[in-house]
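Treating backbone geometry as a discrete language has practical consequences that deserve illustration. The amino acid sequence and the backbone structure tokens for this protein are reproduced below.
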Amino acid sequence: MMMFYENVRLALFSLKANKMRALLTMLGIIIGISSVIAIMTVGQSMTYTMTESMASMGVNNITVTLQQRPQEEETTEEGMSFGGGMGRVMMEEKDLFTREMLGNYCETYPESVAGISVTESLGQSKLQDKGLYANIQVTGVSLGYFLANDPKLLQGRYFSGAELDEGRKVAMVSDIVVDNMFGGDKEEAIGSMLTVNLGDKYFEFAIIGVYEYEQNAMSFSTASVKDTVTDFYIPLNTAQEISHSQGFSNFTVITADGVNSDAFAETTAGFFAPYYRSNRDFEPTAFSMASMVEIMSDMMSTMTTAIAVIAGIALLVGGIGVMNIMLVSITERTREIGTRKALGAPNSAIRLQFIIESIVICLVGGLIGIVLGVILGMGAANLLGASATPSVGSILLSLGFSMAIGVFFGYYPANKAAKMDPIEALRYE
């Protein structure tokens, strides 16, 4: 053990005596490890933020939508084939889900379905009044939308059952709209009327509630806060009266507690399949948010690992630099090696001395790289708006890898030093 500490002390003394050369030697290790740590930190932070965002939409929610069927290939009597593939087919009113379908679905699975969220987008518009303005996305929503998304109410209330059923012209706006149009006075906003231009027609809506706008972690916008587009919620029936639509192209099922969303997604798709048995263009499909979170998480982890491996090539370059400098060091210390061997030092002691020196070089470079990588990774993650979470696993892996590089690339120079003829070494000038 004393020999080990002595070898570590000699290695640190050698680094101190040749500071610039040691720094240049460690540069490849520092760059490689800092790159890997930074990439893993950013990747893990983005994955965590994305999964958190998707989970906030409801991990147990099921999205039901219509997808186009693959077109069947037809063959003529002459043997020529045409069709097939996935040509674009426009969705018509007859293809959409109906209220009757959704009602039957809820009646069939009353213990599994806690609610259904349906939305109807009427497009973007701009609220304007005496030089004041706010950008909005007009969206019709059902009562289940608030159960699925749970927007934070700052003032007022949600839609009542009567307002939803009768399609009244009431609206919920974001705090950004209130800041832009009412100087931030939420109490003044409640009960006020706003005129919205939709398809060259003007509609007046009474504000009944103000919710807190939260930017989606999966969306990125360069617009200022004032110019941010926020949802202008109106009752679903109101939106469908304006758009003259009756059906839905998609909806979200909020499952009850204890329901296996993955298994129930298959059941849901199976329930709606008979309605579309004779529909040549579209078929229903259902997938759970839990499966989407898992797929996205796996995909992000794979991408992060692949990029980190590419960045890790710098570690190989750094290892070659360590081997090169160790060969130079051994050449410079040939007489020292000869003297030690003449005094009875075994080959194993000489070999261990230079392997430890190589490990110390890589370890010091690795520690500097870890600190630099964590700083760069956290800084980059914060710039991207993600919660910075350094990867402890990648830090430990990088530290162990730097020591492994020290052993691997230090063994050949150390073995060369151990096999020196002491007489030839003492004669070396």
